[in-house]
From TrEMBL:
Lineage: superkingdom: Eukaryota
Record lineage: Eukaryota, Metazoa, Chordata, Craniata, Vertebrata
Name assigned to this protein: Tetraspanin
Role played: May be involved in cell proliferation and cell motility.
UniProt record similarity statement: Belongs to the tetraspanin (TM4SF) family.
Transmembrane annotation, as ranges: 29-49, 61-83
Amino acid sequence: GVILLAVGVWGKLTLGTYISLIAENSTNAPYVLIGTGTTIVVFGLFGCFATCRGSPWMLKLYAMFLSLVFLAELVAGISGFVFRHEIKDTFLRTYTDAMQNYNGNDERSRAVDHVQRSLSCCGVQNYTNWSTSPYFLDHGIPPSCCMNETDCNPQDLHNLTVAATKVNQKLIGMLLACCLSRFITANQYEMV
């Protein structure tokens, strides 16, 4: 939860230029991450409170929330995987459009400059992509270009260990909450 909250705040503060290239209008993705992270933190505190109180129904509610979060993350991950090509194509299309309309002064031009500086790249594939831009005909390659022939898109990172750890954490959390709830319920019947 705290990580989602931090990523949402970080995304809002630092990824605005990338998002402005992709979306014509402002996007709510950072706000969704901030809201989701805050909700998870609140429910995490609820889980701690339920454990301290030793309340079986609160622990069952917490386990149910963990399972809903797990399902939501699973759906989001699958959606991201299924639509990864569309996301990449959208970014490349809008980035190419921003290069064609580059003038060095407007917001999208500053976003292109920021992308090229931060990724140490030039153009969509390489610096020759600028040759079709009206800006290139008058001014040449923009100063933000590093003029190397590397691809501007960073390689996809596939880290199965991190994904498996996240899945296992959620499953272990659900299992422990249910076990603790059963243990407390069984002990309450023995006490009476």
